[in-house]
């Protein structure tokens, strides 16, 4: 059955974005945004983590629960056990976007595992079950290779997340990404690039040479080099591939990849 949203739902979605724009800056998402998300999609916890899966470390972890909230910029003071990262790499919902290149689809645990299969997953058995968490819903945002950045919703008991919940988060996801990018720019974390510089960088990321980029964008090879020089100046990167790896996770939401 096709899910639809009411006018009240749509106004609530708009409020989540507008309230976030007016809220104070944070290193993560605006607190007003997380509070709005928790109201729209009933959850026991809403979190926003950035994780380096290759190294096994959290770069940022923000969470909102009924009676608690917090934001940690790294886990050096209280690092997670190594097996957490090992199990996370094997947990299909956590690596879906990295495996498929699809950042638009919001996923539930039940999309990948039946209840009996979920119980056999080490991540669930050793880390979720002790916390009482039974259902998860995840919206992926762009991240550097080997990393992930997600907005996650958690339930302890009760029914699974619905298709209506998925639709709400899926509609909000690109706007949440823009809210995060805006806060990072205002904090001086993300260099500003022009639309044409983004065009060049996307093609670099896809493996095209300068000559091929020039042909695709109907510009000269010299102009491509000039755009790349500007990108190097703004990012501090020392090469085209390094610049793409650094900046592509921060590309505008309108350019995010969608599963074919």
Question: Can you describe what's shown?
Answer:
This protein has 2 domains: 7-186, GAF domain (Beta-Lactamase), CATH 3.30.450.40; 195-253, Arc Repressor Mutant, subunit A, CATH 1.10.10. It is of the alpha+beta class. The chain has 11 helices and 6 strands. Residues 254-260 have low confidence and may be disordered. Helices cover 48% and strands 15% of the residues.
Model regions low in confidence, pLDDT < 50 over at least 5 residues: 254-260
Residue fraction in strands: 15-25%
Placed side by side, the strands forming the largest sheet appear as 3-2-1-6-5-4
User: SSE order, as H and E?
Assistant: HHEEEHHEHHEEHHHHH
Oligomer: single chain
CATH evolutionary superfamily of the largest domain = GAF domain
Task: Calculate Rg over CA atoms.
Answer: 20 Å
Helix proportion range: 40-55%
Give structural attributes:
Arc Repressor Mutant, subunit A, alpha+beta, 11 helices, 2 domains, Beta-Lactamase, disordered C terminus, 6 strands
Question: How would the blueprint of this fold be written?
Answer:
Layout: H1 7-22, H2 31-40, E1 45-52, E2 57-65, E3 69-72, H3 82-90, H4 92-100, E4 107-108, H5 115-119, H6 122-131, E5 135-141, E6 147-155, H7 163-186, H8 195-205, H9 210-217, H10 221-235, H11 240-247
Antiparallel strand pairs: 1-2, 1-6, 2-3, 4-5, 5-6
Helix pairs in contact: 1-2, 1-7, 8-10, 8-11, 9-10, 10-11
């Amino acid at each position: 059955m096709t899910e639809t949203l009411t006018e009240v739902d749509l106004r609530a979605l708009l409020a989540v974005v507008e309230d976030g724009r007016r809220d104070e800056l944070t290193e993560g998402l605006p607190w007003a945004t997380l509070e709005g998300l928790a109201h729209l999609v009933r959850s026991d916890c809403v979190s926003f983590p950035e994780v380096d899966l290759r190294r096994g470390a959290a770069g940022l972890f923000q969470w909102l629960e009924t009676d608690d909230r917090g934001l940690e910029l790294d886990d050096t003071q209280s690092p997670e056990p190594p097996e957490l990262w090992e199990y996370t790499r094997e947990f299909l919902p956590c690596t879906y976007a990295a495996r498929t290149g699809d950042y638009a689809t919001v996923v539930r645990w039940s999309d990948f595992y039946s209840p009996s299969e979920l119980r056999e997953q080490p991540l669930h058995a050793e880390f979720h079950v002790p916390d009482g968490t039974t259902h998860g819903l995840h919206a992926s945002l762009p991240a550097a290779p080997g990393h992930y950045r997600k907005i996650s919703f958690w339930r302890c008991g009760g029914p699974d997340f619905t298709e209506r919940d998925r639709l709400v988060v899926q509609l909000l996801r690109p706007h949440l990404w823009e809210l995060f990018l805006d806060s990072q720019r205002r904090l001086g974390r993300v260099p500003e690039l022009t639309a044409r510089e983004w065009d060049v960088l996307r093609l670099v990321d896809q493996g095209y040479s300068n000559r091929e980029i020039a042909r695709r964008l109907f510009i000269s090879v010299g102009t491509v080099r000039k755009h790349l020089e500007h990108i190097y100046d703004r990012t501090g990167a020392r090469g085209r591939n390094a610049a793409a790896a650094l900046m592509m996770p921060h590309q505008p939401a309108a350019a995010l990849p969608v599963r074919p």
